Amino acid sequence: MIGLNLAALQVVVPLIGAPLCTLFGRGARAWVLSTALTWCAFAISIALLVEVLCCGTISYVMGGWLAPWGIEYRVDYLSALVLLLITGVASAVMPFAYHSVISEVSREKHRLFYTAYLLTFAGLLGMVITGDAFNAFVFMEIASLSAYVLIGLGRNRRALYASFQYLVLGTIGATFFLIGVGLLYMLTGTLNMVDLSERLSGQHDNRVLFAAFSFLVVGLSLKLALFPLHLWLPNSYAYAPSIVTVLLAATGTKVAVYLLLRFGFTVLQVNQHHELLSIIDLLLPLALIGMFAGSIVAIYQTDIKRLLAYSSISQIGYILLGIALASERGLIGAIVHVFNHGVMKAGLFVAVGAIALHAGGSSVNNLAGLGKRMPLTMAAFTVCALSLIGIPGTVGFISKWYLVLAALETGTTRGIIAAIGVISASLVAIIYVWRLVEVAYFTNPSNVEASVTEASWPTLLSLWILAGSCLVFGLATDLTVGVSRLAARMLLGIS
Predict the structure, then answer these.
(1) 3-state SS string over the chain?
(2) Could you say which of 280, 308, 325 is where a domain stops?
(3) Mean pLDDT, all residues of the chain
(4) Which of 74, 258, 410, 474 would give a disulfide with 394, using CB separation of 3.0 to 4.6 Å?
(5) What mean pLDDT comes out for the span 180-197?
(6) Do 313 and 233 form a contact (C-beta atoms < 8 A)?
(7) Residues 330 and 444 in one domain
(8) Are residues 256 and 117 in the same domain?
(9) Is the pLDDT of residue 1 over 60?
(10) CA gyration radius for the chain?
(11) Quick check: 246 pLDDT over 70?
(12) What is the count of structural domains for the chain?
């Protein structure tokens, strides 16, 4: 019973908190309220994960209305891990958020900022926990609309352009997703995902179903920034306030990946049907191209935020490669990388935010000499950057190891190419990572003001929680790999 109520509270807590920020969140009270609610959501996600590992899938029926009439909240191995990622990252970065918002958002907009922040947070959690296909779309729009506001609140006027660009492309993606859901409803008369899966069994030669899945894949590919549908991402990450960039980079695209896994393997069971699996197969070449294109473009960026944005496009390629392999080990690698990339990229963007606040900007040139002037910040940045490469002992190594093994175990030319692609793209990442490290530690700090000092302790607290997680989850893999294995077997229907 406790687990059931917690499933409802996971979304309700931040959703109720949003209007409270508007009403009572003057000054620092909005930050205090947001922090308390975020930490509460994190505690709930931990409890849900423990409950799922102990007792299995949690199902909460809203208002007592059973499927297909009512809305169900459902927490299984996959959703529990993604909920932990979202709430964990959001909780870890709240100390950093205080200084970020003060420095990058106009004072009169602070209440609006935290209101939109909690709405985005609630929307992301809702997309993960809901067991209703249309409800997933509703939460997607809640998260997206509030994210457009958050991006547009940046002091840089180009933030408005980035927000508008994201709005246009995000709306197209959401429209494609909604059309796919509508076609599924037309075929089955239900929106409950479990009910959909049961009613669609044996209909996989239906051309309407093929079209529905195609719309879903295209719509979600726009949301997760799969190459070449990534055009909204670099500007959104570069011009949004730093705390917004952290949230979007660590969780936004990962939730879209979650929905792709949920609809592809839970609802439609693509691994059992050749016709639908052919759509997933198309993701492999796009993933490989994205892995290299993102890393190569990142090499030539002069702004660290844009560099890391193109790095994210590359890392999304790794995740989609694991999904395209459609094997147990491939899904393990993809799910683990969803979690690991969220942690490492959150740490990197917190560090960049600290650099921008203390060194006067996020240009690569602003890194000069910061290895000595901001040693704790740059040490954490380096740890997270090494995770991007996949150095043993960091989280990046674990997921890439599983992806290489999954590719090789196929025993096909396609798998060998995929394995070589993972290794080669990681080697390319060394170039832009080393470029940043070289500037920070081995470049004359003549262009850095003498007044530059170490980041504040709240920022360092957020930063080192995330950097430490890159090391902890890179060495102790029982949680991430163990839960991911259970989730992969569940998605593939392996008992």
Answers:
(1) CHHHHHHHHHHHHHHHHHHHHHHHCCCCHHHHHHHHHHHHHHHHHHHHHHHHHHHCCEEEEHHHCCCCCCCEEEECHHHHHHHHHHHHHHHHCHHHHHHHHHHHCCHHHHHHHHHHHHHHHHHHHHHHHECEHHHHHHHHHHHHHHHHHHHHCCCCCHHHHHHHHHHHHHHHHHHHHHHHHHHHHHHHCCCEHHHHHHHHCCCCCCHHHHHHHHHHHHHHHHHHCCCCCCCCHHHHHHHCCHHHHHHHHHHHHHHHHHHHHHHHHHHCCHHHCHHHHHHHHCHHHHHHHHHHHHHHHHHCCCEHHHHHHHHHHHHHHHHHHHHHHCCHHHHHHHHHHHHHHHHHHHHHHHHHHHHHHHHCCCEHHHHCCHHHHCHHHHHHHHHHHHHHHCCCCCHHHHHHHHHHHHHHHCCCHHHHHHHHHHHHHHHHHHHHHHHHHHHHHHCCHHHCCCCCCCCCHHHHHHHHHHHHHHHHHHHCCHHHHHHHHHHHHHHCCCC
(2) 280
(3) 85
(4) 474
(5) 86
(6) yes
(7) yes
(8) yes
(9) no
(10) 21
(11) yes
(12) 2
Q: Which domain holds residue 412?
A: 282-495
Instruction: Over range 233-237, report the average pLDDT.
Output: 83
Q: What is the DSSP annotation of 159-170?
A: HHHHHHHHHHHH
> Which amino acid is it at 209?
L
Same domain, 376 and 257: no
Kindly state whether residues 96 and 143 are assigned to the same domain.
yes
* Percent of the chain residues past pLDDT 90, beyond the cut: 15
Is there a single domain that holds both residue 228 and residue 365? Answer: no
Do 309 and 162 lie in one domain? The reply is no
Give the model's pLDDT for residue 158: 80
Could you report the per-residue pLDDT of 89-139, keeping only the tens digit for each?
999 998 888 888 888 887 778 888 888 889 999 999 999 998 888 889 999
Q: What is the pLDDT of residues 247-277, one digit of tens each?
A: 888 888 899 999 999 998 888 888 777 777 7
Residue that terminates a domain, selected from 280, 300, 329: 280
Q: Are residues 312 and 217 in the same domain?
A: no
**What pLDDT score was predicted for residue 137?**
92
CA distances to 174, 319, 328, 386 from 325, rounded to whole Å, are: 26, 10, 9, 26
Are 222 and 232 in the same domain? Answer: yes
> Averaged over 193-215, what is the pLDDT?
82
Is residue 388 within 8 A of residue 396, CB to CB? The reply is: yes
Q: Is the pLDDT higher at 451 or at 177?
A: 177
For residue range 381-422, what is the model confidence (pLDDT) as tens digits?
Answer: 999 998 888 888 888 888 889 989 988 888 788 888 888 888
